[in-house]
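Internal tracking record. Fields below are filled automatically when a chain is submitted to the structure queue. Please do not edit lines marked as system-generated. If the sequence contains nonstandard residues, flag them in the REMARKS field before resubmitting.
Queue: standard
Priority: normal
Entity type: single polypeptide chain
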Amino acid sequence: MSGKSVVRRIALAISAVLVVALVAGAVTTALFVRRPLPEHDGEQQVPGLGAAVEVIRDERGIPHIYADTAVDLFMAQGYVHAQDRFFEMDYRRHLTAGRLAELVGDVETAITADQVIRTMGWRRVAEQEWDLLEPQSRTYLTAYADGVNAYISEHSPTSMGLEYTVLGLDVEVDDIEPWDPIDSLAWLKAMAWDLVGNYSDELERAAAYGQTGDLDMVEAIFPDYPSAQNLPILPTTREVDAQAERAAELANAAAPDASGGDADAAPAEQTGGAGTRDASGTDGRTGALAAMETTLDALTAVPAPLGAGEGVGSNSWVVSGDHTATGAPLLANDPHLGPSAPGIWYQAGLHCRSTGPECPFDVSGFTFAGMPGVIIGQNADLAWGLTNLTADTSDFFLERLYPDGSYLYDGARYPITERTETIEVNGGEPIELTVRSTEHGPIISDVLASTRGAGGVPLPENSPPAGLSGFAVALSWTALTPGRTMDAVFAIDRAADAEDIAAAAALFEVPTQNIVFATAEGDIGYQAPGRIPVRAAVGDGVVPADGSWPRPGWDPRYDWQGFLDPDELPAALNPESGYIVAANQPVLTPSRYPDFGTDFAYGYRAQAIRDELSAVVEAGEPLTAEHMSEIQLNEVNPAAEMLVPALLELDTSGLEGSEEFVVEAVELFEDWDYVNDADSAAAAYFSSVWTNLLRLTFWDQVAEVQRPSGGSRWIESVRLLLEDEDNPWWDDRATLNEVEQRDKILLQALADARTQLTVSLGKNPQDWRWGRVHLLTPTHPVLGGDGVPGVVADYMNLSTAELGGGPSIVNANGWSTAVWNDGYPDFSVTAVPSMRMVADLADLDASTWVNLTGNSGHPGSAHYDDQYEAWATGETFAWPFSRQAVEESGSSTLTLQP
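SYSTEM-GENERATED OUTPUT FOLLOWS
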């Protein structure tokens, strides 16, 4: 939910009160801004602790907690999280429970989000998970909640966050309700939702077919994974050799080989197939496609606290000690998520003074405020990183409805299940919501007022059986089945070897993640976890078995047949190459392993990392932690590598009068190294050309919600389209008397980009700089939007940074080509490496880390943004792990007494 939506109604109140507070002087500033700052020194009484707990914070406010028992350790973690990030925690629990309107009032986007989340039932599922967890995990969650509540009990809302002061100007802010362990479990659902695999691709395939009526055109914008060019996470020797041969051929060619062929590779898996021309199984697509399009509209209403859209993903890789300067493994990770203020991660160390059965934890890394444990990090025996596996764990089922409230399934009619949810609105009347479900899950297509008509769209007369009233869309998603992922978090935190990681992965059901790891004993490895649906191969040619299209809900053959056994999931230990790269590409080539689906990142980031690693290894140069950090900052643009050679070969005489004007900009490409650094003029021009090319090629033939985002799928799609100058995608449907071809669209993209950048960056292309338009401003989710008075937003948000990088680039400062403002592309950064870490298994104190913003959620704290500048310039900080290193870095010590 955007800050603009949340605070529009209270902007005048903020203007009248908070602005005065911020500028009036020390007294009012202390009252409103400094009041929520917690004590980081001295002693605090915390009822329920078994013994004293030490919290040593370093100069950036990062706490390392030392306790005698695990219960005390997690209780202290809850207390510390509440000290520094409670409003964020409170916001998150209202979000995951579908209760945002209860927090912020009668705000349309909050109510919309509540309706969709209540329909999916995130909180209901979390409640069901409680009894599935190990007793020990329930004890840890309870201890964490006790720690949060110990802090809450001592403070009023306005003394825990400036946000409560502002909200209290317009809505009622009562005493904060106690933290419940289920509040922590429910956050896992938000994580899973933001990282779910292909739900948007599934809907967009069907919607694109509805727009074009041409399966070949749909397949052109959902191309097969380029396995001949970009390797999967766990490639075969044959695939490695074939890729190396192709790379050598390209290096010797005058221009990149656009054939895309690979005679040695296995046949590409079919993402559609001739039988998928009608995903509904009938000739009556109108009602089904309307239902799917409105379902996509409904799902985009859900806030994405981890980020959404182009650029959300991650890089991780691990290198064996055979290739490092120390002889011990190195591991790197940088999850790409949405920017926010404060940032998504909270750094912390959880240390048992003496490890044993009562207290088995000695771990530090990146945590989520509101959840116990460490999500990504290192312990005394092992370091691990996570990237999104993007396995296909959700399906949309088209349901055929009858007017009496029943639906068709296996030749019979069944009643739709209904329940009533009540959405409380702070300062407004409650809203009653009827949630309908079928055998396959909640019906999403009738959640919102704007989408409820989808199920009533009439079907053609010849669509059997008679009496149907239309289609609805139900969601099957593994996260809506209770699971034990919280057990997995604690298991990974205390893992010591590959066997422990495999055992933890068997519990890590959602979201599906790639786990790369390295041990102090010298092992490196990979493990795929997750609850992965098994789909039957139905042979009648209606819908493929891979889950890439919505499925006929009335036919039980298309139901899930169970889930893959954890023992069947891919894993690797100490591969011959000596390194593993996981950057959201397929684990195994989809043509030989279709079980995970077909929708992944197309491997450009992963291949760039592999190429850098292999170059260093082949040169015989030992890798260092500094090497790993440098690779994280790689800004070579694969879209430019693909497209610029074709642009330079164009006959610009077709520009008719503007040739000299455009050629002056095109000359920037002639000696460009394809690096999207912030100071590059060529990067600025190419980014605008790329955006305009996608607009000119696709916008006229897809719905607005499907406009290209510019990421790796579109790179591969355009690469293949360049081979076919008469492909119907090149035609502009708005020009009825002309059928455009490839070169005309390419020339128009060059011309439009030149004109746009002349207005925004100046007449001389040599003066252009990518960083001047590629801007990041980490924004507060409630008080940072456009509707907030500038002085308030400026105070809550971080300063604007000029960045290099971009989508499908290793330094993944993503932006979307679908976003335009007043006729101009918006290059604002929408996804970032939310943190960067390098773990050094030779000496854990030599590991490095950096957070996007800072550890505190209080804008009055020095630690609100004290890592931001270093993050933006690619710097990292020492990561103290041992007690000695923590004490040497310590700047404050808080003792929590029972």
